[in-house]
Amino acid sequence: MDSGRNYLGYVDGMRALAVLLVLCFHLNTSWCAGGYIGVDIFFVISGFLITRLIVDELKSTGRFDIRNFYYRRIKRLFPALFAVLIFTLGLGILFFAPSQLRALGRATAAAALSFSNILFWRESGYFNATASSKPLLHTWSLGVEEQFYLIWPLILWFMMRQSYARRLPFVIALCGLVSLAGNFYLQKNYMSALYFLMPFRIFEFCIGALIVWFIRYRLKDIVLYDVLFLTGLGCIVFAASTFTKNTLFPSYNALIPTLGAALILWSGRDTRLHAVLNNRGMIRLGLISYSLYLVHWPLIVFYSNYVAHDVGTTSERILLAGAMICLALLLYHGIEQPFRNYRAQNPIQQRQFLQRWICGGGVLAVIGGLLFFSQGMPWRVPYLSGPQFSPQEMAKDFHKAHFGGQGYPYPFGWTYSTDEKNPDIVLLGDSHAQMLQKGLANEIGESLHKSIYMAGSSCLILPGLSRTTPGDDWDTICPHVLKQALAQLNKKPDSVLIVSHYWLYQLLQARDMAEHQIWHFNLDTMQPSTFDPLWRKLTELRQQIGNHRMILIGDVPGAGLKDPYACLTRPTWSRSHCLHHLKPTNQTVRRTQYFNQLLADYAQRMPNTYFLDPFPVFCKQQKCEIMSKTGELFYSDDNHLSETGSRYLIAKLKTKLATWID
C-alpha cells in the first residue's frame, strides 16, 4: 500500500467493489446479472489515476519521463499476467482437447502482445456459446487498458507541452464525446466491436480523467459529498442488479455505472460515508484486485470444463471464491508485490528491466504460436476411430467445420437448385433450420430433384415478432426475412414451407412489436396455455401462406454438452466427468418431448399443416444417442446437428417428407 500523502484509500475500495462485481457475475449469481460493469469501473479508475499521475508530474517537473511511465506500468502488469499465462498453458496441456489448446495458444500470444481484445472481437462475442471455454477471455480488458496506456500519455504530454493545459479538460471531454458518439452510431450492427475495441471504450477512461479537475474544487457543504457518494453507489448497484447479458452495452447504458464511479471518485475523499469503501477489508481486497481478476476466470473455466457443467450451486460458488482468493494472495505476495517494489538503481537497469519483460512477452507469444501451429498437440489424445477423429480434424473448431449448415447459404440462398426461379421448398427459421440444409440437399434435393430455398435469421421468424437481444437491428431483420420467404413461396402455387427453430430458446428471446412487449415463458411449469402467443403467431403465418402446405419441425434432444467433440478428444485423464454428461439431461428430454407434442397437436388442428418430430429418430425409451454406429457425432455442439446428424435425421424422415412435398 502506498502510504504517501497522495494515497486515496477509497480508490482501492472501489477496486474491491469492481472485482467483486465481476466475480459475482462470472459465478452466475442471479442477483448480480450486470456484474460485468465492474470492468467499466476499472476503466474509470484507470483514467483517473493515470491522468492524475501524468498531469501532476508535468506540472511539478515540467517534463514527462515516458520510459519511467512504461517501466512502472510493466512492473505493475506484466509479471502477474505472464505468471497466469504460463499457469493457464500448463493446465491447458493437461486438460484441454487439441482444438481448445490450439485456441488457447493463440489467445496466449494475443494476451502477451496486448491485443487479446482484438482477437476476441474477431472471434465474437463475449457472451457466445464458446466463451465459457476460453480461459483467457478476461484479458480483453487488459488489452484495452494497455492500448490506452500507449496513446494517453502522448496526448497529455503534447497538450501540456504546447501550453494547452487549460484546454486539456475540454480536449478530454471531446475525446470522450467522440467515443460515445461512435457507440450511438454503431450500436445496431457492431456491438461486438463496441464492446471489445479501445476507441469505443475511451469515453469511460475520459470520465475518470475529468475527475482530476473536478476533485480540485471544494464543495461548500459536506452533505453534497454525501449525496454524490450515495448517488454514485446507487448507480452502480442499480446497473449491477438490473442489467443482463441482453442489455445494450456499452453505449448509453454504460454511462450509468461509469458516471456512478466518477461520482464516488469525486466525493470519496470528503464524504462522511467514506468508510463504506475506505475500510481495512475493502482496501486489502482492492490491493489484490488485479491478481484476483487475473486468476478468477481461468479457475472457473477449468473447473467448469472438468465437471462438465457451468457453476450453478452455492457450494460451488463458495468453493471457487475461496480458491480464487487463495490463488490471488499467492500471486500478489509471490509475484505482483515483489516486482512492484523492485527499484532500478539507474537508467541502464531500468532499460534492461523493460527489455527483459518485453522479450518475455515475445517468448510467450512464440510458445502460444507453437501450440497453435502444432494443431494443439493431438498426440496427447488416445486413438479414436473414424474420419472425424484424425489429428487434422481434432485441431479444428468442430462446430464450424462440421455444422449441418456448413457451406450452404445463410441467411438467404439456394440450398439445392434445379430451378433458381421457383423453389419447391422454402426453408424458414434460425440456425436450427440452417442445420437441416445438408440433409435436405442430399436426401430431398439430389434424390427427389426438389429446389430448396433458405431464408433465415437468429430470431423467431413469425409475423410481428422481433428479438430482444442487442447487437443487430432485429426489428428490421426479422420481418425482412419473413417477407423474403413468403415472396419465394408465392412464386409457385404448390411450394411447401418448412419451419424449424430452436423453439424453446427463441421463445425466451421473442418480442411482439405490435404490443411492444417481451414474451415471458416459464418453461419450468409448462402448460398448453403457456404457448398461446406462439399458437396465435403460427396461425397468423398459416393464414398468410394460404393453401401452401406448412411443415413444422420440432426441437432436437441435444448432446448435453456445449462441445461434445472436445469432450471426446480430451486427454484420457480429464475425460471421465464430461463423458458422464455426454447426453441430454432428463429435464431437457422431458421438456423437449412435451413441447414437441404440443407442436404436433397444433399441427393436427390446422389445415395443410404437418409436424415432424426429431425426438423418436434420436431417442428410444428415454435413451438418446449422440453418435452414429460408425462413431460420428450427430451434434456439432450442444444443440445443433452436425452434417452427419442432419443427413441422418432427414433420411429417417424422408418418407413422410416425400409424401407432403409431392
Written description of the protein model:
There is one protein chain. The chain starts with 8 loop residues before the first helix and ends with a helix. The protein has a 6-stranded mixed beta sheet, sandwiched between helices. Helix 1 runs antiparallel to helix 2 and helix 3 crosses helix 14 (314-340). Strand 10 (619-620) and strand 11 (623-624) form a beta hairpin. The protein folds into 2 domains: 9-378, no CATH class; 404-558 and 587-626 and 646-661, Rossmann fold, CATH 3.40.50. It is 58% helix and 6% strand. It has 662 residues and is an alpha/beta fold.
Oligomer: single chain
**What is the general shape?**
globular
**Structural class of the secondary structure composition?**
alpha/beta
Taking Cα atoms only, what radius of gyration do you get, to the nearest Å? 28 Å
- Count of distinct strands: 11
How many domains is the backbone divided into?
A: 2
Helix content: 55-70%
Numbering strands along the chain, what is their spatial order in the largest sheet?
Answer: 1-3-2-5-8-9
Low-confidence stretches: 1-5
The description of the largest β-sheet is: 6 strands, mixed
Number of helical regions: 27
Gap between N and C termini, in Å? 78 Å
For the residues shown, what is the average pLDDT?
92
Strand fraction band? 5-15%
